[in-house]
Design a protein that fits this description.
By secondary structure, the chain is an all-alpha fold. It contains eight helices and no strands.
Length: about 210
C-alpha cells in the first residue's frame, strides 16, 4: 500500500488526534497480561506518584489475551508501519498503550473496551472468512484489503459500518499512543519539553511586527 492509501495514517495529520489523547506513553512497556475485566470504578482515585515509573498492570488489571495483543499489534503496524523516519507502532509497544487505555475502569474507557474487543474479534473472523487464516498470519496486502473496507465509515458498506467505527476508534488510540512516544514526537519534529540553558529574546523583526519595538 502506498502513502496515498487512506488506511495509512498521515503522520503529520496525526497531531490533530494527539490533542484527544490523554494518556501518556510512560505505560508502553509490557509486563503481566490479564484477561479479566477490571472492576468498576467508584472515583478517580489519588494522584499518581510522579517520581515513579508506572508499567502496564500497575494501576488496574489488563484486558488483552495473548491472541488479542498479537492482533492489536498487527493492526498497529498496518496503521503506522515503519518508514525512513521512525519505527512501526507495534515495535514501540503501542498495542500495550491500547490495552492500558481500554482496561481503565472509567465509563468512556469501558465503552472503548467493548468496541475494541469486538472489533479485534471481527478482524480475525473476517480474515479467516476471506483468506482462511488469522489476521496476524495474513500477508500485508491481505491485511490492508480488509482495512481498506473499513478505514472510512462514510464509504463503508452497510455490513462494515460497525467495523468501521471500531477501526476509527482503534486508529485514534494507536495514533495517540504512537505520537506521545519520544520516537513519535521526533517524527513530528516536536521540540517542546526541552530544558534551555538560556531564554533568548524574541527576534527584533517579530517585535516590530507586533508593534512592541
Amino acid at each position: 500500500m502506498n502513502s496515498d492509501d487512506p488506511v495509512r495514517l498521515d503522520r503529520r495529520a496525526a497531531i490533530k488526534w494527539m490533542l484527544a489523547a490523554t494518556a501518556g506513553a510512560a505505560l508502553l512497556r509490557p509486563r503481566v497480561l490479564g484477561s479479566g475485566a477490571p472492576p468498576a470504578a467508584t472515583g478517580y482515585g489519588t494522584d499518581p506518584d510522579l517520581l515513579k515509573a508506572y508499567h502496564p498492570g500497575d494501576l488496574w488489571p489488563l484486558t488483552f489475551s495473548d491472541a488479542q495483543r498479537r492482533t492489536a499489534a498487527a493492526l498497529c503496524d498496518v496503521i503506522i508501519p515503519a518508514d525512513g523516519q521512525s519505527p512501526s507502532a507495534a515495535s514501540l509497544g503501542v498495542q500495550d498503550f491500547v490495552d492500558e487505555w481500554i482496561s481503565a475502569p472509567y465509563p468512556d474507557h469501558v465503552a472503548d473496551r467493548q468496541i475494541i474487543l469486538a472489533g479485534l474479534a471481527w478482524l480475525e473472523a473476517e480474515s479467516h472468512r476471506r483468506f482462511g487464516q488469522p489476521f496476524t498470519g495474513a500477508i500485508y496486502s491481505q491485511k490492508t484489503a480488509i482495512c481498506d473496507d473499513v478505514c472510512h465509515e462514510p464509504d463503508a458498506a452497510p455490513e462494515f459500518k460497525a467495523a468501521a467505527r471500531f477501526f476509527q476508534r482503534f486508529r485514534s488510540l494507536a495514533s495517540g499512543g504512537f505520537y506521545t512516544t519520544p520516537e513519535g514526537m521526533k517524527d513530528l519534529a516536536y521540540i517542546g519539553n526541552v530544558p534551555l540553558a538560556a531564554y533568548p529574546e524574541p527576534p527584533l523583526e517579530l517585535l516590530q511586527k507586533l508593534g512592541l519595538a
